[in-house]
Design a protein that fits this description.
299 residues, alpha/beta, nine-stranded mixed β-sheet, three-stranded antiparallel β-sheet, 11 helices, 12 strands, elongated
Amino acid sequence: MKKHLIAFAVMALAAGGAMAQANDTIAKVKASGSVTMGVRDSSGALSYTLGDGKYAGYHVELCQRIIANLEKAAGKKLEVKYQSVTSQNRIPLVQNGTVDIECGSTTNNATRQKDVAFADTTFVEEVRIAVKASSGITSIAQLNGKNVATTTGTTSVQTLRKNERASGIDFKEIFGKDHADSFLLLESGRAEAFVMDGSILAGNIANAKNPADFKIVGEILSVEPIAIMLRKDDPAFKKLADDTLKDLMKSGEILKIYDKWFVQPIPPKNVRVGLPASESTKAAWANPNDKPMEDYAKK
């Protein structure tokens, strides 16, 4: 009986150690010799695939900088593995230890903070309006009586309807099955405007047949902090990630990295997204923080 109790105690200790290590990323990667980066296939210039298992983008590069410091903390060179994630599975894969650091396009909000942690905000998304340059539309008020495109499953039109400047504005929403389809509605003239995240609008305009035919206009409809996602209750790794990002922000190097992906031509097509850093993003760099989206909504 005593042997069984001892065996059970050893197993319990081992399980407890495994669970503790799951929330200690530095210890986990040191033991395994590898780190897994969660990446997105098509999150604009934040994170996207180049094919053949290769990924690139602003958040991918920032994660690579964090991993360089993680290697120093672990005292060894780490094998970097890439795991493609989706909107549906990204949080569970971080929670269960499959992904050590998620480098995509995840909004930091209060609900998600109950399940995961976020590094300091590195990109602030602004929901905007794209129109044809020849339309003469420059504000929400001019959408009255117009067809407005958005993508099925997103909240951009609801955001527009809730905007105080849209009071009394009557427009018809039409839906594209994905962002490319929504942009086609604008391009073909079936919609006079496309409401979506600014980075997505800019990416679609950059890849249009004639980018100069379109522009992003109007008021900012909402502001959302986008951040690199980490496991919850892992203060040592969060500090390492935050310190890495703070150093880049303080030195100004983060702007150079941002411009590399959002202003200069990027692979594989060598097109420009053409989205200079917004004042909201610059403000987040000037005052590093991991505040959720709800704090940005406060006036």
